[in-house]
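Here is a typical protein record:
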Amino acid sequence: MLTETVGTAPERSFLPQGDRSLLLVDDDRPFLQRMSRALEQRGFEVVTAESVEEGLAALKRSAPACAVVDMRLADGNGLDVIEALQRAREDARVVVLTGYGNIATAVTAVKLGAIDYLAKPADADEVIAALSRKAGDRAAPPENPMSADRVRWEHIQRVYELCDRNVSETARRLSMHRRTLQRILAKRAPR
């Protein structure tokens, strides 16, 4: 049986009746705490984990009805948590969050059972809307999508972090002059 509403949302929900258990996995502690509080205020029973290892341990204790999983975690990939959850509970609804979205990981996440893929920073209402969406329904276009400059900046920051903050290596991988990269890194993020 399906429940008719989620929190105060008027749209039809496709969450299992009465089961409001949710696993939230993210290694960004401030984000994890904010999202956990927001979801609890909307009626979810939230269990948090800051790593793949903690997420897998939480799944062994109890497989939740829903999960919100960050793609990149300090000790591995959130896809491992999604795969384990789908084995433990086939009807679980999973939303993937990431600051480093790309088509390949989105496809993999969906193949493993994720129902949606949201870019960080997502808020609790976006997460609940994604969890409540009927399979096959398309999400509405974002009200305030990232600008092209912001997407470029995010990509540069991602490569910079993956290169252990080595400017020369990052510049080489991005086919960019080192001084140009240094100027970009010194600036604030575009809106």
Notes: The domain at 21-132 is CATH 3.40.50.2300 (Rossmann fold). Residues 22 and 66 are 5 Å apart (CA to CA). The helical segments are 29-41, 52-61, 79-88, 103-111, 124-132, 148-162, 167-173, 178-186.
